[in-house]
Amino acid sequence: MANKNHLYPHLLLQDIEVWEAHLAAHHGYYHTIKYDVKVGQGRDPGPEYTEQMRQIGLGLSQRRIDAVGYTDDHIDIIEITNRAGLKALGQMTGYPILYSLTYKPTLPIRQVLVAAELGTDMADIYKQANITVYLYPERLKHNVHSHSNRD
Hints:
With 151 residues, this protein is an alpha/beta fold. Helix content is 32%, strand content 26%. The chain has helices spanning 13-25, 51-61, 86-103, 122-128; strands spanning 32-39, 63-70, 75-84, 109-118, 132-135. Strand 4 (109-118), helix 4 and strand 5 (132-135) form a beta-alpha-beta unit.
């Protein structure tokens, strides 16, 4: 696969394959998709730095949502990962709150997980948390160095 990181900032290659499978299955669902969406306040490196460096530090330390999909009637906060565990659950819990605080949307927000597989015991947890899950097991990649392999 050609390097597509320029299309999807900060996604790992195996996550890009899962995301592209989702896009193909739901072609045209969103009228707009934004990637690497910054939310939250970030961390101020401190008064010993120049104002310009402090602003850069704040921007670099903000949390980033993999993708935000916009329809006419709702907004999807989308986490994309090879294998989804508790880390993704935490992101799916926190990101909608931070998105709301940062952007003050007027449309309802949905939590959407796009993954190749769920970690052990996660299916019931995601269901109870009311997170919409799309799985693409044919895109499963086993990469022990990936952050997305942690349950």
